[in-house]
Amino acid sequence: MPLAIDTVNKQAIASAFSRAAGSYDGAAALQRETGEILLGLGQGHSGAKVLDAGCGTGYFSRRWRDMGKKVAALDLAPGMLAFARQQQAADEYLLGDIEHIPLSNESVDICFSNLAVQWCGHLRVALNELYRVTQPGGIILFSTLAAGSLDELGQAWQQVDGQRHVNEFLPLEDITAACGGFRYQITQRMHHQYFNDLIELMRSLQGIGATHLHQGRDNGLTGRRRLAALQAAYPHQNGLYPLSYQLVYGVIYRD
To answer: Where are the annotated coiled coils located (predicted)?
Structure first.
């Protein structure tokens, strides 16, 4: 089974999230909700050192730090990491990739990665790296998006021009397979957001930096005619525009 997305452009992803640093927290309702759930899964762990892998603005780095943990914040996007540093969200700041974490083996007790590993090219490589830097007895907490996420938007675009124009995410069985060999627990939940209009919906994605497409961006996507066609094709629920996310929460126990 394919456990990787081979066309990930890390530089483009880093640039998109760097541009969104100032607006991210105001648009990140989904990230807050998933992060709180993920935080709850590891809140009882006694470990003192936390790696926030894909820290973004450092919101959850700060949450861990307020719990008395020593936190290293890691992000691929320089703009995000700079914002986290300005907020004094962590004890240490690392510019880097989850697939190549710049830490030594067994150097943290808890790895926390909220809605970040879906941007990796190879999920198994990312999980191996999180496992490597975690001490025995520690835990790895991650949330990610699975296939079916943003499906309403993809189907509407399909009607407009025959292409989905949304990021493709791994199916649940591939995410589970990437955890093979670890002692782990996986749960899946559906999350729905509703918007008053299509512009609000699209801005919610821009606000969190999630406008990069794994297969490359199409500069014509925002033309008025195409947007009108997209709006006509988009499904409505009680006058609102729905957007669905297939969320996966994972806990890996470091043996």
So the answer is: none
Strands 108-114 and 92-95: unpaired
pLDDT digits (tens, 9 = 90+) for 198-225: 988 888 787 554 554 444 444 444 578 8
pTM above 0.90, yes or no: no
Q: Which helix (H) or strand (E) holds 245?
A: strand 241-253
Strand (E) or helix (H) holding 230:
helix 224-233
- Distance, in Å, from the CA atom of 172 to the CA atom of 165, rounded to the nearest integer, reads 21
| Residue recorded with tokens 């021009």 | 161
* 180 pLDDT higher than 60: yes
CA distance 97 to 14: 10
**Region for residue 232 given its phi and psi (left: phi exceeds 0; alpha: psi -120 to 50; beta: otherwise):** alpha
Strands 241-253 and 92-95: unpaired
241-253/70-75 β-pairing = unpaired
Strand partners, 26: none
d(CA 175, CA 69): 29
Non-local (6+) Cβ contacts of 187 within 8 A are 248, 249
Residue with tokens 């496992």: 131
Distance of CA 106 to the CA centre of its chain: 24
> CA–CA separation, 53 vs 114, rounded Å?
8
Nearest to 124 by CA among 78, 182, 211: 182
